[in-house]
Amino acid sequence: QVQLVQSGGGMAQPGGSLRLSCVVSGYRFTFSNYAMSWARQAPGKGLEWVSAIYADGSHPYYADSVKGRFTISRDNAKNTLYLQMDSLKPEDTALYYCAKGWRDEYDYRGQGTQVTVSS
After folding, report:
1. Cβ burial 65-88 (10 Å sphere, 16+ → b, else e)
2. Do β-strands 108-109 and 94-100 pair in parallel, antiparallel, or remain unpaired?
3. Using CA atoms, how far apart are residues 31 and 75, in angstroms rounded to an integer?
4. Cα–Cα distance, 111 to 107 (Å, whole number)
5. Where does the chain show beta strands of DSSP type E?
6. Is residue 60 within 8 Å of residue 52, measured between CB atoms?
């Protein structure tokens, strides 16, 4: 069993920034062996894969909707995944999830954290 515990998020004004964190743990689990992803779901919409990163921190993927504004990173020594969100827009408002795996090939995900962008 793998646990993903998210933190961060909250409210921001348009143009502002927020950072999400996701700490991953599990019995005999090696974080540095797995790609990780971030997804979001806005009210009434489907799941959108926002960003993903390889196990070694290479090959970051970004959805066109966030490219140039969001930055994914990971600290394998701390078993932690991050999403730095800058230049936030109201349309970024959603419930954000971290997930173990590459985008829709995930097998576990976090509890979700709300991000609300509003003036």
Report:
1. ebeeebebebeeeebbbbbebeeb
2. antiparallel
3. 9
4. 13
5. 2-8, 10-12, 18-26, 36-41, 47-53, 61-62, 70-75, 80-85, 94-100, 108-109, 113-117
6. yes
List, for residues 11-59, the tens digit of each pLDDT value.
Answer: 999 999 999 999 999 999 999 999 999 999 999 999 999 999 999 999 9
Spatial separation of the C-alpha atoms in residues 16 and 68, rounded to whole Å = 14
User: Rounded to whole angstroms, how far apart are CA atoms 54 and 112?
Assistant: 21
- H-helix or E-strand spanning residue 96: strand 94-100
Q: Are 68 and 85 in contact (CB under 8 A)?
A: no
Query: Which pair of structure tokens corresponds to residue 34?
Result: 């797995």
Q: Give the integer Cα–Cα distance in Å for 68 and 111.
A: 26
Amino acid at 111: Q
CA distance 119 to 116: 10
pLDDT digits (tens, 9 = 90+) for 66-90: 999 999 999 999 999 999 999 999 9
In whole angstroms, what is the distance from residue 33 CA to residue 75 CA?
Answer: 12
